[in-house]
Amino acid sequence: MIRTALAVFLVAAVATAILAITGEPGHASIIWLGWRADMTAAAMVLITLLGALGAMVAWRLLLWVLEAPRRAERTRAETRRRQANETLTRGFLAAAAGDGAEARRLALKAADLAEEAPGLVRVLAAQAAEAAGDSAAAVSAYSAMLGFPEMRLAGHRGLMQMALARGDKAEALTHAEKAYEMGRTARWAWRFLLEARLEAGNWQAALDLVQGALDRKIVSPIVAERTRAALLAASAAQLETAPESKARNQALDYALEAAKLQPGFAPGAVMAARLLAADNKVSRAAQILEAAWKATPHPALWLTYRDLKTDETPRQRAARLEDLAELNADTRESRILFVEQALITGDGAAARRFARLLDAEPVTVRTAGLMARVAYASAKPDEARVWMARAAGASQEPDWSDIDPNGQAFAYGPADWSRLVATYGETGDLIHPRLERAEKTISELPELPLAYVDSTPFLANGDMPIAPFAVDEGLYGEDEEPPPPEPSNARRKAPARRRLASAPRAAK
């Protein structure tokens, strides 16, 4: 309206200006109710303009007066809304802080103020009851949400959590199933259902659940693929030892599909190769292990690859393992495998050459044991014992715990497979339950002869690699006397030569 008035005023002003510029004022007469008014055209335009503006102002003033009650009501509503938002905010903060009494007080106040947001009031009432420790009130508040379509998903989630707090997993599962059926993106419900299927060892139901989540875009394709691969491997492990040939064939299908979905998933590749080798399909088993090694080298892969053939000489076996390592030569596992294949043939010089590639690696029980074997194969038993001593304080590698002491890789139970599926599906990392439970695994330390060999050649040989510690560290000087020997029933003659302070005394 203001824009219209400005346009009229502008047109009138332009017309008046034109009349003034042309010097022709014009003539206008108005006859109304017996009255006659004669004036110039410019005066007529100005009078008309002023009359229109006055009428417009009077009309707007009348509207302002008539709308005063409605305007006052809007102001009160806005004030009430602002107070309701402030009360809800303070209530949620109190519930998050665990102040149940304050949260419940604010929830009651918000119920009177927030008439336009009943959903938020109910959520605050439920959380306030939880913070106050009133389970019955919380269950009642969450149950009330089920009567409203837009709040039903939140109600099921709250009731599921309350059921879990009571230890009622059956009721929690019921609410999760209902929430999963109605919510396309209810990832929490899908996750709880998956964990329940895994805990029960129901791999097929878990597979169906993962496929459904992928179709509904609850999980990403990579998470779905990893989870399906782990579930298929778990299914294969369950059927692998079955006496029926049909079950073993099904296990092979599962393992092959797992290896196809995730070539770098070592359990799937190892089981597929093991089942193929049992059916005399060694070439195909080798292809699967080679593809897995290219993707993600793992110690279980080369051990399985090594055992595919049992009628070959050590040199032939070493050559085959070297070819496997060459497929992914720049990785740590391939460098370790280069050392292993050299040790198989007893080539100590080659083993030491390959071992230098591991100098930058942190010392673990596995690498220390490997270095001890290399040193002993190179006729350096004292150096081997130094590595054995370092292994005593080194950390254990999780990868090695996948190898069963009886030679069976990934011989997990249902509980271990459940954890593996959940962890590998989400992060792509393998769990290592034997290491976590400190169970016995294949020993990574060699069994060296008990006879002690003089360490002088080891210390004096200039072409030897640097010892794991400084050569001068812990040596007695020429003018120093060694500490008195500990009491012993056996009499020994103190050696005249300098020796390592930390080395054991000579044993005959």
Give an overview of the whole structure.
This protein is mostly helical. The chain has 3 domains: 65 residues; 104 residues, Tetratricopeptide repeat domain (Serine Threonine Protein Phosphatase 5, Tetratricopeptide repeat, Alpha Horseshoe), CATH 1.25.40.10; 246 residues, Serine Threonine Protein Phosphatase 5, Tetratricopeptide repeat. The chain contains 23 helices and 2 strands. A two-stranded antiparallel ribbon has the order 1-2. The termini are far apart. The C terminus is likely disordered.
Describe the structure in brief.
This protein has 508 residues and is an all-alpha fold.
List the helices and strands and how they pair.
Layout: H1 2-22, E1 28-32, E2 35-39, H2 41-66, H3 68-97, H4 100-113, H5 118-132, H6 135-145, H7 152-166, H8 169-182, H9 187-200, H10 203-215, H11 221-240, H12 245-261, H13 266-278, H14 282-295, H15 299-306, H16 314-326, H17 332-344, H18 348-355, H19 365-377, H20 381-392, H21 414-427, H22 433-436, H23 456-460
Helix pairs in contact: 1-2, 3-4, 3-5, 4-5, 5-6, 6-7, 7-8, 8-9, 9-10, 10-11, 11-12, 11-13, 11-21, 12-13, 13-14, 13-15, 14-15, 16-17, 17-18, 17-19, 18-19, 19-20
